[in-house]
Structure formats: C-alpha cells, structure tokens
Amino acid sequence: MQKVLVVSYSQTGQLNNIVNSIVSPLQNSKVVEIVYETLEPDPPFPFPWNAEQFFQTFPESVKAIPCQLKPFRFNKEENYDLVIIAYQTWYLSPSIPYHAFFQSDEAKELLKNKPIITIIGCRNMWVMAQEKVRKYISEAGGRLIGNIVLRDKAPNLLSVISIVRWLFKNKKERYLKIIPPAGVSDKDIKDAERFGLPILNSLLTGNYDDLQNHLLKLNAIELFPSLMMIEKTGTRLFGIWANWVLKKGNYGDKRRNFRLKVFMYYLFAVIYLISPIGTLVFYLTYPLRIKKIKQNKEYYSNCP
Q: How far is Cα 248 from Cα 38, in angstroms, rounded to an integer?
C-alpha cells in the first residue's frame, strides 16, 4: 500500500474539486492510501471578502510573511511515498497559508527527500508563485517531480471582473452575457482526472524521472510569453509596494488602509491601461525575444 499526503487550502472549494479530480485514479486504485491535510489559518481568512480584507493580504503574500495555522493533523512519523501540494496564488505569490506551511519545521521535515507534485488553481498567472514554491521545496530537501496548472481560460480583462464578483460577492455565474463564469471551468476540473494515471504509474514503479513529460503531453501546463513578462515586472513592482505598505504596520492594521487603497487604484490602472500597451509592445518586439522565450518556456514547463 502506497501512502500519499495531499496538502491543500481552499476558501471557495474550487481547489478541493481540482484535487479530487486529479487524485481520483489513485483513490480508486485500492493500492493507494491518501491522507488529506487541510491548512487552517487561525483566525480564518474570510470568504467572501470585502475590499479592505482582500487588500490587507497583499504585503504579507508578496513578502512571504506567514499567518498562524492550527496544528497539523498528519502523522509526522509516517513515511509518505508521495506528497501533493495544491495551492492558489495571491498577488503573484503563493497564498499566505502556504508561506506558513512551508516555513514550519513540520513541513521542512516532511518534505525532506520526498517526491513532490504541485497542483495550481489560478486565474491565469502562476509562474512567479511557482518559483517561490520551488525554492521552498529545494530548501527543505524535497524533489519537485511534477506540476499541473488549471486556470481560468477567460480573456484576461474579462476574468478580472468575474473573479472580483466571485471573491467579493460569491457570485460565480455568467454576468451581463459577456462576462464568463469565474474560475476554472467545471469541464476542465472533471477532465483533470487524466493526470491521475501517469501519477499512479510513477507512484507504483517508484520512477518519477519522466513524470513531468507525461503530464506535459496531457497539457498540464500552458505558458503565455506576454503574461510571463507581465508577471516578472509585476513581481518586482509588488515588492516595492509591499514594503511601502508594511511601513504603516502589520496585517490588519488600519493605518495601512490609505496606502492599500492607493495600491488598489494602481493595480486596476495597470490591468486595464498599462498591461494592454505592454502586451502590444511585447508582440511588436517578439522576433527579438524568440530565443529567450523558448528558454523560459522550457524552464517553467519542467521540474528541476
């Protein structure tokens, strides 16, 4: 019997549905025992959010400042054969509960010498968050052997509206006929079970060397060069903004609200005014970037 630990945190339930779909072939195999560890922030983050609550998480997400978690329930003495970490992105970074998880002594001990698969559920940007997760895994002595990304496939400027309605009003359905439903589609979630079979085969043989290649053949990752450019620039700028906000206090401090409101207006201005121009410039200079783009696609698609 192979033992698999699945670590996840989901406010909306979407990530749980993604995980359940992907691991269903393992669950049904009768030779795999799956242990689920749900991260529990203490106190919990709200859902739905209001704007103040949502933007209060910005500096801590970017600067990897952890929250308090309730004690883990997994058996620290158990030798798990595989660890699956399913996470979502906040502000181009792993969400705050995952910073807390990765920085804990229990996680560092758990991940040491373990094969690890990451599963990401996001709107459309995940590359820079995964870089931070790669670093956490490497520092813990783990081995990243697979990565699967499920994203919202709606056009970028429309999905901003749909995700805001979902996060602030818990309204996920189509809006005004032109705004698509928020989040990863039900079809994509159901079809994600296709990733489970190569994971199961690698688990049973103990050979993970070619797992990511098998996952890529099943379209586990789609990369968009223009979004990668926006992410890299955004990550640098977010760091500057986060430092500016943190000068006014820690998470929840009301003194931060003015600076967070300024950041909010900046963020929407970037999304709707600056990023379209940046994307246009990117494609106009595309021939000059081909070599670098190929290198980036190969690096971000694979596991070290």
A: 32
Let me know: does 15 contact 121? Beta carbons within 8 Å. yes
Which residues share a beta bridge with 94? 89
pLDDT at position 275 is 86
For position 297, what pLDDT does the model report? 92
| Closest of 116, 103, 40, 112 to residue 76, by C-alpha | 112
Query: What is the Cα–Cα distance from 165 to 182, expressed in whole angstroms?
Result: 8
Q: Which fold does the domain 2-226 belong to in CATH?
A: Rossmann fold (3.40.50)
What does the alpha-carbon distance between residue 211 and residue 230 come to, in Å, rounded to a whole number? Answer: 29
Q: How far is CA 71 from CA 61, 68, 215, in A?
A: 21, 9, 33
DSSP 8-state code for residue 64: T
Give the global pTM.
0.95
> Would you state the pLDDT for residue 250?
96
| Cα–Cα dist 302/206, whole Å | 19
What was the pLDDT predicted at 288?
Answer: 85
The H or E element containing residue 4 is strand 2-8
The H-or-E segment that residue 90 falls in is: strand 82-90
Amino acid residing at 61: S
pLDDT of res. 289: 87
- Cα–Cα distance measured from residue 150 to residue 164, given in angstroms and rounded to the nearest whole number: 19
Q: What residues in the chain have per-residue pLDDT under 50?
A: none
* Strands (E) located in 115-162: 115-122, 143-151
Which amino acid is residue 152, in one-letter code?
D
